[in-house]
Amino acid sequence: MKIYFLLLCGVVLALKNKTKPLYSVGLLIPKEEFHVTFGFETSYGAAMLAIEDLEKEGILPKNSLKIIMADTRADPVEGVGKAVMLKNVYNIDAIIGAPHSSVNLAIGYLTAYWNLPHLSWASTDSIFENKEIFKTLIRTTSPFSKIGPFLTKFFKLFNWTIAAIYSPLIGKYSNAVVNGVVSNFEENNITITENISFNTSQLNDRRIQQHLKKLKRESRIIIVSAPKSILRIIMVNAYKEGMCNGDFVFIALYSFPEAFSLENDDEDIPLWYANDNLDNLAKEAFKVLFGHMCYTYVRVKPI
Questions:
Q1: Rounded Cα–Cα distance for residues 97 and 78 (Å)
Q2: pLDDT digits (tens, 9 = 90+) for 235-263
Q3: Are 3 and 296 in contact (CB under 8 A)?
Q4: Cβ atoms 105, 76 nearer than 8 A
């Protein structure tokens, strides 16, 4: 829900110079066939709760912002059609969405032409960096192409030149992040000693321990891309393997939507916490973990 609070704050700031008793914001999301975190089931309700928060904080006068939802069906053509409908029928003041880059691309051309504030929370394609074209678009998610350069600079800061990578065998978003890291490391003479991919459905303590033994042979820096629940299991096993005593550093890349698929979306709950007998051990293990969550890095440019 916090991401919608941020998005709607952006809408309010974008519209602050206008004088209208009621603002209408189009919410373009797929109603079905998309991940629950970014689909209709959670998005519309979260937007309503965010409006309540804005009113409580005094940022927004009561009953001054209306959300109009339109189903994009995760299709670019449908998305464009619904954007035109929102503009022509409802005369919307801003658009939030769509989460798909392919759908948002088509909509982005329209909002640029209309000079309409356009905010998105899950479109990661690097094409949106072109502010000569997408001049009204703000994203709250860093593009995956930025993760590699960020880690390269991070490594240079500590004079690190060797790393190992541990990530899912299948995972569209996770693979995109890892591939970008590998490419940037190769270009900057950072050696990857091991690049182990695991099958999420077959992962267990024994397999993790086998993988960790390989990962730690030649590298003290372990980069992990995994859902939060699996990350916790990995770190617990790393502790058992004696890898949390200060000799090793773990860097976690939480790529969406996998990172949120099995979790409570309350950001105040620590990643190590599961309310079980491993909590204390997990808490100690996470002390050697650096976190870079793609979802929470925000780059805001003025409209």
A1: 13
A2: 999 999 999 998 999 998 864 444 433 34
A3: no
A4: yes
Tokens of 57: 């904080």
Q: HSE (CB half, 13 Å, CA atoms) of 38? A: 24
pTM summary value: 0.62
Location of structure tokens 């990995």:
234
pLDDT of residue 293: 47
How far CA 230 is from CA of 4, 51, 197, 219, in Å, comes to 27, 34, 13, 21
- The CATH classification number of 2-140 equals 3.40.50.2300
**Per-domain residue ranges of the chain:** 2-140, 145-296
Residue in the block written with tokens 């973990």 = 289
Asked if the domains at 2-140 and 145-296 fall in one CATH topology, the answer is yes
CA distance 139 to 126: 11
Residue with tokens 């909002």: 111
CATH fold of 145-296, please?
Rossmann fold (3.40.50)
Q: Please tell me whether residue 250 adopts helix, strand or coil conformation.
A: strand
| Sign of the CA dihedral running 279, 284, 285, 290 | positive
